[in-house]
Amino acid sequence: MRSEQLTPTNSDMDSDATEASGWRSQLMQKFEISTLMRLLGGGITFVAIVMFLFQRWDDATDLLRYSMIMGETILLTILGLATSIWLKEQKSARVFLGLSLVSTSAVFTILGAMIYSQIQWLPVDAHLPDYARWVADSSQSLFWLLSGSLVILVAQSMFSFSVLARPAARRLTLLMMLNVILLILPTREMWITTLLLLPALMFGHRYLTKLRASMPAMRTTEGVMASLLVMLPLIIMIGRGAYLYAADAFTFTTLALLGYLILRQLALSLKVMIRFRQSLEVLSLLPALLAAFSFTFLLYDIAPETGNWLVVAFGMTLSGFLFDLSKRAISGRNHYFTSIFYSGLIIAVIEIAFWPGLSTALFATLLSGLILLYSYSTKENNLLRFSLLTLIGSVILLVNTLFVSFDMSIWITLALLGMSIIVMAAVVEHYGNQIMTLIQRLKA
């Protein structure tokens, strides 16, 4: 009897084998060898395109280097056409054509650098690395180079978009060329770049949203990829400014805001590829943090005497981004919304730890008390514990500060604080339901 219990039966072994084979078959269905090869080849080619912009060969002229990246763009388009016609394999063809559009943006990035070497609107002082210096021989040669490239790459873009999203090919090509024009304009001044980028981002998002609403082809995975590639020149403008021309806190703040805006608009535009949209939403936290940090340093440059309140400014700025994410995120909205209150408590702790005093103690007490009321009313137990601990510590610091340095101004402040809290209690008592309704609307 005991041996029967310890020895697996044939049916158990068969079920284990079935589960194992089922697991393998599911894995193979998701990751076919051809799919893995396309991912590997496409990734290597994409890295090659990007690395081309960050390398320089001593024995190659700028014209030769430009011819190399232009030739790669044409070759990728030809391979996409050949793969589609001769091998009848559309997936690889779309990969080739998508990469050719990436290369097209790289080509125009180089053209923009060449134009800037001859013509500069409001020149900016910047110590550019060698690989970022592209010099045209003359204005005349630059004119012919730009004209020829536009003719070739407009046709190439039209063909590529006709494969990715045929009904919208002309419109996507036109929109991409409009973005390319902004990319090659000979200006690097950040405020001009911002004035150009903001309306372009808004218009591009609105235009692509209308295309997706009217054309089913734009709602497919290929249509989403086409939409991303159309906006790539604008993304390059932001990256170029951040990497090569960002020199102060204002520039970093502006670029971070633009980066957040691009990720926001891209995420909102995705009706398929839900996991990719979730990744974009999480990735939005990076430019949000950068923007909050940069804005804090910008405030410090303007008013250095407010140093102890800069952490509060950082928290308020970050809370604005978190609130925006809580309103538009496709999942985890409550986490983003609750993070606002956790951020407030962390900032209160930092304030009383590094700048202990009456003002910071009052601030931490009020803030943690309000968050305590919120967490109690919404039954957020973890937030309730954290806010209670913060409130206790803030009150201890407040009482200690009052006993150590008690004067008339402190007495007046204390009296006004007590009366204000009583008034707030009356407001909560009378408008409690309305306040809870407002909180639920904010969370929704």
Count, helices? 17
Structural class: mainly alpha
Q: What's the overall average pLDDT, rounded?
A: 81
SSE run? HHHHHHHHHHHHHHHHH
Low-confidence stretches: 1-21
Per the principal axes of the C-alpha atoms, what is the gross shape? elongated
> What is the alpha-carbon Rg in Å?
29 Å
What is the distance, rounded to the nearest whole angstrom, between the alpha carbons of the first and last residues?
Answer: 60 Å
Tell me the total number of β-strands. 0
Proportion of strand residues: under 5%
| Secondary structure: helix percent | over 70%
Describe this protein with a few key phrases:
single chain, 444 residues, mainly alpha, 17 helices, elongated, disordered N terminus, transmembrane helix, transmembrane, membrane, DUF2157 domain-containing protein
